[in-house]
Amino acid sequence: MSVNRRDWLRHGSNLRLVLLVLWLVCYVGYGQFEDTNDFNNPAVLPLVTQMVYRSLSNSTAALNQELATRAKFCVKDPDADWNKAFNFSTNLDFLSSCIQKTKGDIGRRICTAAEMKFYLNAFFSKSNNPAGYLQPNGNCNLTSWVSGCEPGWACSVDPNEQVDLQNSKDFPERTRNCMSCCEGFFCPRGLTCMIPCPLGAHCPLATLNKTTSLCQPYTYQLPPGRPNHTCGGANVWADIRSSGEVFCSAGSYCPTNTRKVPCDSGHYCRMGSTSEKPCFKLTSCNPNTANQNMHALGVMVICGVVTILLIIYNCSDQILTTRERRQAKSREAAVKKAKANQRWKVARTAAKKHVTEIREQITRTFSGKRTNNDGETHKMLARGYSSEVEDLPKYSSSPASSSAVQPSFEIEDDAAAGSLERPSVVTGGKRGKGHRIKKSQSQILRYAYNQIEKEKARAQENRDLTFSGIVNMATYSEMKKRTLMELSFKDLTLTLKSNRKHLLRCVTGSMKPGRITAVMGPSGAGKTSLLSALAGKAVGCNLSGMILINGKELSIHSYKKIIGFVPQDDIVHGNLTVEENIWFHAKCRLPAGQSKADKVLVVERVIDSLGLQAVRSSLVGTVEKRGISGGQRKRVNVGLEMAMEPSILFLDEPTSGLDSASSQLLLKALKHEALEGVNICMVVHQPSYSLFQTFNDLVLLAKGGLTVYHGPVKDVETYFSGLGIIVPERINPPDYYIDVLEGIVTNLNSDVSYKELPQRWMLHKGYSVPLDMRNNNSAAGLETNPDVRDSNNGNAEQTFVRELWGDVKSNFRLRRDKIRHNFLKTRDLSYRTTPSMWLQYKYFLGRIAKQRMREAKLQATDYLILLLAGACLGSLIKASDESFGAPGYTYTIIAVSLLCKISALRSFSLDKLHYWRESASGMSSLASFLAKDTMDCFNTLVKPLVYLSMFYFFTNPRSTFFDNYIVLVCLVYCVTGIAYALAIFLQPGSAQLFSVLLPVVLTLVATQPKDSEAMKIIADLCYPKWALQAFVIGNAQKYYGVWMITRCGSLMKSGYDINEWNLCIMILILIGVVTRMIAFVGMIILQKR
């Protein structure tokens, strides 16, 4: 009986609990509680708290939804922001406390969706209401101002009125039972309801400071005339710049909105933190600190980076130096073996010749009796040396190659080893007996020097030009023959378009392959103009007459792959060695199908023939860093064109600045080129007599571009002697003839004046003489254009404006002609397939990598400056929570843009002349541009790391290191493209000036208030605007909870959108791509050929 009674009592208690829960479900939404004693029950209070929190969550969700609707620019993920601001599920103590304080009346005191919307409207309309005061409403106005309208207080709704917290239209009449706001809530002035404080806020009850009459920790005062009114709770949640009372203070963290805990040692707590963060390693954090003490880490990072930079600065050349030393050893060994082999061959040949002479003598002595001893002697000489190092090239002729030699050989064993085993020769793709040795670098060098020694020995044998030597030269099948090209011209006239002045006039002649033609004359005679006209490089001129190639009227540009042009200036890369300069041109301009062994042979032959063996591994040198001598540099300049095995070679004053010995060495090398069928034309100034006799043909020009003589050098004295002009004894003939044409020699023992020499040559050759030269033999008639003279006389009375307009038109025509010339497309008739664009890109990449390694000291200086800039800006400018670090990022954009632009200018400003020369010779412009840009990508990736290693750890922003790195990489990529365009379109001085001014000016424009639509458009065109926006957005995303309104206010003031981070990154990349395209087009248009 007792057991049943206990069960009945237990079931009765459970029944009462179930009924209470059902009652709470029915009435908690309306805040109607009659029996307040149940809220002190420990079993009931948690259930009530959960019910209130569910209702409160719906209310704050409406607040968050309104914020997301009104402020999409500052809310990226509404649900995530709500969780970080109003998810109190981990601790609901402030709700339980408020329920007990209000005796269950909390539901009637929480703001509805309409009241929260009203509060947010006041925040977003600060442009019309700068103070942020709430507008009058039904509960708080001039006629009704209850105690709940005061800051920190709230009122309740009439018990008979139902409250719908999700009502977003109507205000409930909330004027009853006014009391102070609960802890964890804030009650704005002008509203009689409570809004929960977000996470990261600290909203305790205020206490009156009798000294200042302020309700601390807030800044409002008690209303006058109400002695019974006391300090309430928090009164405002707003932008930190206008009111920051509710923010959890720096040095402490607030796990709930009613509890504040000081930061422990080893941790740091920023303003508005909900938890403490541990300090990085090697940093220190004192108790109650808001930032890490990173001075020790910064010093260590600076010391480490500086040490690395110093190592790079001092050891940058060791890699290339060690590699060059190893190659030099292999080359020296190959030279020694080749010379030893050649000496043995010479000795064996001499022994055979001696045996033959003895045999002939014995035969004559014994009346023609013949013995077999001679044959045995030959066998004895040849015995034991069958394994001698002799390369066995197979020669084939291909129209696609200018070289007739295409070796397919197997390197044999060393002769000194005495091996009797012969190597296998692979034919038809099948392997023969024996082992096959791969063609290593040392084997290729051995082959090349064997060939060179053979050529030297052959030249020595044929120097006497005996009958047998001539036969040997004629029957020698290994002599390379280039594509033979004869260049002839008839009535060639070159006239400037600007003033119609003649540079050349009625020049007729021909230049044949296998001969060296020298073009001579006084200054202003048109020597270089003749070379430019024949090479197709005359721009801004009218060219008349005929230029024939092998008797056909074809464009010279169709053969540019087999035409070499040596400019007057020594355009050679100073930070490359002699061998690297020549080897690069050989790789890019020789046929793509030519083997590496043949290319090495070409390069070694050029270096050997020009006498550059001693300096082959020496840097050419620049103005700042001395390298080889001027004469050696001149020979390297010629070697660049010789390395591509041209069929026609133009040289503009190659002997200027050379001594007699160097000039003879150069002419000897050119003579060897002529023996292979190269058509060589060169401009020379007053050569020595021995050098003059080396030339085959001579073109002598008078002032005005008129021909005085064109023919063999050996006949020039005979011709002038026939005119009565005899060279005195001990006078160099070319010097004397030039003095005659200059008018310096006046005591000619001839009835022919120097002014009549061009006409006499025309009559001598049977050419037609122009009409003005027939009627006027004066200097004016010969040296000027009569049309120009008449035009000048007629225009003598022109006004200054007309003359200026004429000059402008002439300059415009000249630029137009250059652009047309650069885009001139012709059919390739050279039948030479050079390496593809991607293969040339590989070659350019390797060359630029070597140059950058040799410029590592300069690169290290750039990195050191960036490091110091990051340290200085990071230590001077602290991250500001109010602006999300915008000031520091602004200075970062200026500093990084300026330093990276200045360094990027070097990629193109210093190499313009080299690019123009290489592009004119047929090298790929796209390959050159892409290679430089690819190498600069290394700086694009590394420089942000160097800068952020200081700036980020000193400022310690809330955004991640990776976010800042991505933005900075895109910024560097963008400004590098702008620097390319500046370097190509402007002169170096102007480009540097613009590189300094642009970052400053554009950043100032981008950070100005956008008061007008025009100002907004201009700011959108400035790259600093997008970089700063990306920095600020990346940092603002890490501010949440109590920072939501501050984030929205800062982004609204700046005009930024938190959803446009990806757009900012894409625009920076797009600007970098577009400016690179503009730079590339400018590089092609503005190049000089």
Using only CA atoms, what is the Rg? 46 Å
- Category by helix and strand content: alpha/beta
The number of helical runs is 35
Report the uncertain regions.
1-6, 8-36, 368-438, 777-796
* Spatial strand sequence of the major β-sheet: 15-16-17-13-18-19
Helix content: 40-55%
Give the overall form.
elongated
Strand content: 5-15%
- Largest sheet entry: 6 strands, mixed
Counted beta strands: 19
- Mean pLDDT over all positions: 78
For the termini, the CA-CA separation is 119 Å
Membrane topology: Multi-pass membrane protein
InterPro entries: AAA+_ATPase, ABC_transporter-like_ATP-bd, ABC_transporter-like_CS, ABCG_dom, ABCG_transporters, P-loop_NTPase
Keywords: ATP-binding, Membrane, Nucleotide-binding, Signal, Transmembrane, Transmembrane helix, Transport
Domain ABC transporter: 487-729
Name a few traits of the molecule.
elongated, alpha/beta, 1089 residues, disordered N terminus, 35 helices, three-stranded antiparallel beta sheet
